[in-house]
Amino acid sequence: DLSRWLPCQSRCELAGAASLFLSIKNSSILINGPRWCAMVAEREMAAAEKKYEKQMFCSEVKEVDLLYGADEAMQSALDEIKNEQKPDLIAVLNSCSVSLIGDDLKGICKSADMGCPVIPMDSGGLRGEFWHGYQIAAQKLLESLNLKTDRKRKNNKVNIIGWCTAYPNWLGDLLEIKRMLQKINIEVGICFGADGVAMKDLEELPEAALNVVLHPELGLNAVEFLKERLGQEYVIAPIPYGMQNSLQWLQKITAALNMQPDFSAIENEIAYNQEKIDTAIFQLKANNKNISFGNAYLCLTQGMAMGIVKALVSEFPDLNDIYLRLEGPVESSIMSEIFCLTREWKGYSDKHIRKNYLDLVLGNTQTRVEAANYKNTVFMNVLLPYQGVVVHERPYAGITGWKFLLADIFDKFQTLAYLNPVVEDDRIC
Question: Is 184 helix (H, G, I), strand (E, B) or coil?
């Protein structure tokens, strides 16, 4: 299997680093490389947030620069940023080609008089993928901050670590998570990686009593850095999906904070919504007695998989087997519980297709093409990259998000069931 030697099999390290730095309010990104690399990265970032296009610049390195050095091209681009943007932060990201020539990136950035912090980063895709770039960028950004250890902490305040505006539904999911936390009197401080966080705001990171890691593939190294630097504790609580799983997620965080809040409002909300969901499931089965859900095929990141798998096992109607393939870094110790509930999915095959069953496929558009069996699969795009009209405000996580996710899945199920009439001989006994 030679695929492991490929330099980048999905979105590259440069895109991951850019996604974090662009989330900082009034930041600018200089891609130190050819125009082609900048155009690809700009297209990917603009798909997440259109305004990011105006924050990205390119040194437009040419062939002669690759031979004799790109320092003049980079300095010219830095001057352009200073004159046009006057940013609060500049990140200089080397592309693959410039990474090979060995320019003194740190020295050039240090000597440049930009009037704001300049963070250099060698982010060529020859070394890693999106998540690796995000992690390195997070480390460098935190190291550049003047985080004070003597700031007073609030016992009921948490930071959210490991968030990304390139993930589908990032805004709606974040709003729902904040809503649930605030409903049990937990204050949310900094959401590291969410759009619009100012450099000055990041100085408030030490005020939280706990850092909550929602996507370990993005935020685990950041919370370990904060624990070492500030003595701040953290809890790995991947993004919650489902009703009871959302309640258990909240209970895990309150236990880490040594809080004993009143969960009655949350429990009443869950009971109210669960009754509606149970009715919808009953109607779905009653209207489709001869066809049902089959297997689930999931291609997800670690943080998403932990929440979605638990919800599918405990709160989804009558799935058979769950096949899982993980994108990005994986901590086996964190995933051990999930691995016991799933089987490894190496690829979709016609042998999995059975009469009178509609399989559930969760992933991205590449996963959908791989699954291929459009007639018998209910597909949801929950993983980057996303194609089509992006509605970040629509949640799939938490209590509200589970209703939206089930509504979308059931709607597609009904459509496919109508398009797949069951003949008499095929009916399930």
Answer: coil
Q: In sequence order, which ranges of 260-331 are alpha helices (DSSP H)?
A: 264-287, 302-315
Q: Are 278 and 315 contacting, i.e. CB atoms less than 8 angstroms apart?
A: no
Contacts of 394 (CB under 8 A, 6+ apart): 169, 172, 404
Amino acid symbol at 333: S
The reported pTM is 0.90
Of 371, 355, 379, 360, give the one whose Cα is nearest residue 291: 355
Compute and round to an integer the Cα radius of gyration of the chain: 23
pLDDT tens by residue, the chain, 429 residues = 565 555 555 678 888 999 999 999 999 999 887 777 777 777 778 777 888 988 999 887 776 666 556 677 888 888 899 888 889 999 998 877 666 666 667 777 887 888 899 999 987 656 678 899 999 999 999 999 999 988 999 999 999 999 999 998 999 999 999 999 999 999 999 999 999 999 999 999 999 999 999 999 999 999 999 999 999 999 999 999 999 999 999 999 999 999 999 999 999 999 999 999 999 999 999 999 888 999 999 999 999 999 999 999 999 998 999 999 999 888 888 899 999 999 998 765 555 556 788 999 999 888 888 877 888 899 999 988 777 777 888 999 999 999 999 999 999 999 999 887 654 444 443
Closest CA to 102 of 133, 71, 73: 71
Residues 301, 383: contact at Cβ < 8 Å? yes
Give the SS3 label for residue 117: coil
- Token pair belonging to 397: 């996580």
**Domains located in the chain, CATH noted:** 2-144 (3.40.50.1980), 154-265 (3.40.50.1980), 268-426 (3.40.50.1980)
Looking at residue 322, the DSSP 8-state letter turns out to be E
Residue 300 in 3-state DSSP?
strand
3-state secondary structure of 283: helix
DSSP for 203-258 reads TTGGGEEEEEES-HHHHHHHHHHHHHHH--EEEE-PPPBSHHHHHHHHHHHHHHTT
Burial environment of residue 296 by CB neighbours within 10 A (0 to 12, 13 to 18, 19 or more): buried
